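Hey team,

Sharing the Anion exchange transporter run so nobody has to redo it. Sequence (630 residues) first:
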Amino acid sequence: MTGVKRKKNNVVWRKINSFHCADFKQWCLRRLPILEWAPCYNLKENLIPDTVSGIMLAVQQVTQGLAFAILSSVHPVFGLYGSLFPAIIYAIFGMGRHVATGTFALTSLISANAVERLVPQTSQNFTTYSNSGVLGLSDFEMQRIGVAAAVSFLGGIIQIAMFVLQLGSATFLLTEPVISAMTTGAATHVVTSQVKYLLGMKMPYISGPLGFFYIYAYVFENIKSVQLEALLLSLLSIVVLVLVKELNEQFKRKIKVVLPVDLVLIIAASFACYFANMEYTYGLDVVGHIPDGIPSPKAPSMNILSEVVTEAFGVALVGYVASLALAQGSAKKFKYSVDDNQEFLAHGLSNVIPSFFFCIPSAAAMGRTAGLYSTGSKTQCVLASIIVVGLKGMLIQFRDLKKYWNVDKIDWSIWVSTYIFTICFAANVGLLFGVVCTIAVVIARFPRAKTLNLTNLNEMEYKVKTEVEGESLQQVKIISINNPLVFLNAKKFHADLMNTIQKENANNQPPDDINKCEQNTLLNSTSNGTCNGETPQPYPNEKCSVILDCIGLTFFDYTGVSTLVQVYMDFKSQNIDFLLANCTASLKKAVQYCGHLESDKHIFFESVSAAIGAIHLNKNLSKFSDHSEV
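Structure output:
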């Protein structure tokens, strides 16, 4: 008996250990995404194109690292460090396959507020060079990077705390209009901060509420102090950058290696600055010496953390929001998923760990990668031009105003008001204002948001039979919306709709096919429509069509309309008919405009019966076409 009990106990312990091992493995895969994608990396197919892209983007990051370090009011070499370490950390913990962290204009501008407040520019000049400090830099420069590193450290701690609190689930409050307005307003701030370099003016650091307007007031009051040489060089740099980047964009499919115009322009400007002695002949500001090497790690100054709380919160929120928008956009485009909460952890660690290596706050941006180079002297007006042109993608978001006006005028109003608050105060203030406005509007419109009405779903299913005996049946599933479709319930609406179709397909699928593929490929965003390496064959006896009855859709916003368009595109890729019935004129216009569906007007019908009749007619026309071919 004792031996039997011992054997049973051993079996129990083995099961417990195997359960814990499986649980731990799942946790590691979830928190360390690199363990999931690295073993599956196809060296033969991806190594060469990834290497070429990495080299080109690394060259671009050198120039942006220098420029954004100046924007952060620290020595340019620290921008190069900020291009290397955050990218490595995010590659391990991040889920965005097409984004990489590095120096970022918005976070650099926020950290500059703390740097200029705690270590103001007094008798020290930006080009001061001394052998007394780390890397041969002066104590003044080390004090400045100490403040920026403290902002990065505390901002990362805040992001990690948000990860622990599972606040990633609250990101649905960050609607597209709010993010677009905030980033556009922040980009306007960045451009404004570079005006003094573009014009070659000497001006004090101006920040705080309404600082945007004070800067331009100072410029107009001292317009006579503009250096013509700096202005001409800035205009020439901007024109060259814009033209070459547009040409690269036009011919990117024909040429595999794009021209690194940023680096070419800096090299050309450096030679011109050196041989023409522009610093002394024309009085232009130059960056100066860039030291070699990487410093030994050092903990950020903890005694100033309480003084940089405001900037740290700004870095944590603005950096995360801008990064998440890019990650979600690329995930949507390339059909994979991103865990909003995991991104908090990835960006938090990408700020905390690099802060020990004198890095400025970082965030993700498309086309960013790691790079560490040593270089010679650079003109600051050229670097300012690179910053301005690099923000083109954010600045042209003004075009979204027309889109929001045509889809939902309330979203248009939120965009405008959020932008105004951002330029009048700060990016984090504008972001908070936009979220509060969005919530207030929803509360005023309706007390609570539900999603699909599934109570009588089984009574609203039809079989459209053709006249030919033995012809396949076509199922029509009708789903009605009895509440508004807005950002609060749009995600759940999409999930419920997908789950409904998945369950129906699972019920209609033969048992053998279910064993082969347990999950409907419509919901498997990480796959390309395959299961176990094979292309799934559609069930031969039945095809599903979905009619969405919008008679109860009282109002909608841009997020809700975007969700409808996404559902339509998902169903279309799976050869599932998706029709909209009882649509209002405003909803029809919004869907067509948002999804560019002007040519697909046949998806809208005046009633459910009209949509069913159209399905029946299309079935007969298809049958007639098949007989004609025979």
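The chain has a mean pLDDT of 76.

Ping me if you want the raw files.
A.
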